[in-house]
Structure formats: C-alpha cells, structure tokens
C-alpha cells in the first residue's frame, strides 16, 4: 500500500490498574502472542473517554472507577503489532483504576494476567510499548506525563492508601478526643449540680434550726379568750406569725424537704435517734414523743429526728 493511501487511525490504549498497583496484561494474536494492554479505535462521533469506556467493557467486562489521560503516542509501522504492521495509529493513552478485578475477555484476547510493574520489565513476552509506559509513568521518580499532568500509577495508589490510613487514624483520634470532651463536660455538669445541691443543703441546714425553734415557740402560745378584745388582738398577731411560719415550711417543701414522721411510728435507727425510753401500753419501739424534728431531702435523711420510745 502506498503512503498516499495510508491514513492516520485515531485510537486509545488502556492501562488498567487495580488496588494493588498491578497492571492488567492481555495476551493477543494481534501482538503475535505477546502481552499488551486493551486498545481500540475511536469510532466516529465518540470522544476518546467514551471509546475507553466502551473498549474496557467489550474487552474486559470491567467498569472504571476513574479514567485519567496519560499521554499521546504514535504507533507508526510497529513491527510487534502483526495485525496491521504498516498502519499509523495516533493513540491517546489512558490510565484506568478499577476496584473489581473479575476480567471477562472477548475473542480478541487469549488470556490475561495482573502483574506488578517491576515484574513487567523482566519479562520477554510483554510488548515494548507497555514496558515504555511502565518505565515512564509507573516507575519514574517524577511520575509525570508528557502533558505535565499526573500519571496515576501504582506509586500514587500506594501513597493514597497511606494517606487514607492516616486520615482514618486522625479521624479515630478526633472521635476519641470528642468523646473524652463530652465525658469531661458531663462530669463537670455533674459536679456543678452536686456543688449547687451542697450549697443549698448548707444554707437550709443553717435555716432549719431557726425554723424548729420558731415552731417550738409557736406551739407554746397561751390560750386566749376570743371574746376579750385584748386577747383578740393578740390572736390576730399570733395568726400572722403562724402564717410566716407556714411560709418557712413552704420554702422547705420547694426544696423537696419534708419532716420525718415520728409519734405513733415504729423506731427506725436510719431516721430516728432515741434519747430515752418510757413505760407505755404501746408496742415496744413505738415512738411516744418527738424531742427534735428530723428532715429528709429527696428521700435522703439530712437530719435525724430525736425521739422518746416505748419500752
């Protein structure tokens, strides 16, 4: 065929890498039984990326996780390509990352292998164009394509894996720190609540003896004749004082403080303190008299009641 009748054929070459950084090689009669990579022509009306996705599906059955342009090369009368050794292919090369490695070949290939880049260079059954790619884009220190962009080879994958691991470690550390902070905040809130309760209890403890004395004094007011005008005035004063005493009692109730029951109840050493015993017809241990009132706050004894019990 004369050069005048030759045409440049636009095509794509697909370098498929898995998570391990291995490159997919396919053995094809087009390359005289040597291992190459999936490739194909760009059809009229489709983009190069669309051609990559189509050829990938047709020749391997794989789906791309990412597709990145790597390089442009010209295959001009490549003698290793026995299918059309006189052809001129203008090939755009793409690197494709896949997560699934279940390859399903079509009739263009005989077999396939996943191979590490270093091993590819040691083999005689791999075509030159693939070895050049490995040297330039997978094992190069610069790891740069001819277009100045990144060539996402196995080193990049390894670096990404390391970064992902570091990210997970940082995330775990952040989550632990956040949990520790929440626990600390909960502990501080608990301590604050305890401090408030202790402060309240201290104030109320100082207040309760005054309230007790108030009640004792009020209980001994004299009998009055309501028909007597003078006694009537005294009674009004006593009623006013009684109302004030009730207000004191309401304050205690607002803090869930209640008096411990005594007279008629059975003696309970957790709530009562026996100051003495008296002969009585009541059952032994029955509380006969209350000497000093006791208090409970939210079910907890804060001041025992002092009592006289039957013996």
Automatic annotation (TrEMBL):
One annotated Gene Ontology cellular component of this protein: cytoplasm
Residue intervals of the Nudix hydrolase domain: 7-138
GO molecular function, one term: protein-folding chaperone binding
Keyword field contains Cytoplasm: yes
Protein location: Cytoplasm
Keyword Transport found: no
UniProt-listed SUPFAM superfamilies: Coiled-coil domain of nucleotide exchange factor GrpE, Head domain of nucleotide exchange factor GrpE, Nudix
Subunit structure, interactors included: Homodimer.
Assigned protein family: Belongs to the Nudix hydrolase family.
Entry function: Participates actively in the response to hyperosmotic and heat shock by preventing the aggregation of stress-denatured proteins, in association with DnaK and GrpE. It is the nucleotide exchange factor for DnaK and may function as a thermosensor. Unfolded proteins bind initially to DnaJ; upon interaction with the DnaJ-bound protein, DnaK hydrolyzes its bound ATP, resulting in the formation of a stable complex. GrpE releases ADP from DnaK; ATP binding to DnaK triggers the release of the substrate protein, thus completing the reaction cycle.
Protein name, as recorded: Protein GrpE
Organism: Candidatus Magasanikbacteria bacterium CG_4_10_14_0_2_um_filter_33_14
Underlying gene: grpE
